[in-house]
Amino acid sequence: MYVYILTNPTQTVLYIGVTNDLQRRLYEHSSRRGDARKFTGRYQADLLVYFEICPHAVQAIAREKQLKGWTRAKKDALIAAFNPSWQAIDLETWAG
User: Fold this and answer.
1) 10 Å Cβ neighbour count for 24?
2) Which residues pair with 47 in a beta bridge?
3) A single GO molecular function, which one (predicted)?
4) Residue 79: exposed, middle, or buried by beta-carbon count in 10 A (0-12, 13-18, 19+)?
5) What confidence score (pLDDT) does residue 95 get?
6) Which of 5, 32, 81, 89 meets the CB 3.0–4.6 Å disulfide criterion with 48?
7) Sheet strands side by side (includes 2-7)
8) pLDDT given for residue 41 in this prediction
9) d(Cα 30, Cα 22) in Å, to the nearest integer?
């Protein structure tokens, strides 16, 4: 299971989600770009800037809820520690 954070090109919004297939989920987000009915589509938040792996769904969901409760500054610091340049992560080339 993955907990992940997406942002938009101007890094003004963050979207936190959980999935069992990160590659598939990123594709789903990018295919809805511009869909005003969906948060990620409305704000064009389809750039992966952070993710972590959790061994079980219960842990992933708990972590997602924890992150959603954090301040923006705390989320920014988490992302910066993991991905200092805030570059969109390509899962195929990410070295971590």
Assistant:
1) 10
2) 7
3) endonuclease activity
4) middle
5) 72
6) 89
7) 14-19, 2-7, 47-53
8) 75
9) 12
Is the pLDDT confidence value at 46 over 70?
Answer: yes
Instruction: Report in angstroms the alpha-carbon separations of 82 from 4, 5, 37, 66, 77.
Output: 12, 11, 30, 17, 9
**What length does the chain have?**
96
The amino acid sitting at 24 is R
pTM: 0.92
Enumerate domains of the chain plus CATH numbers: 2-82 (3.40.1440.10)
**How far is C-alpha 49 from the chain's CA centre?**
6
Among candidates 55, 46, 42, 44, which has minimal Cα distance to 17? 46
What is the 8-class DSSP label of residue 76? H
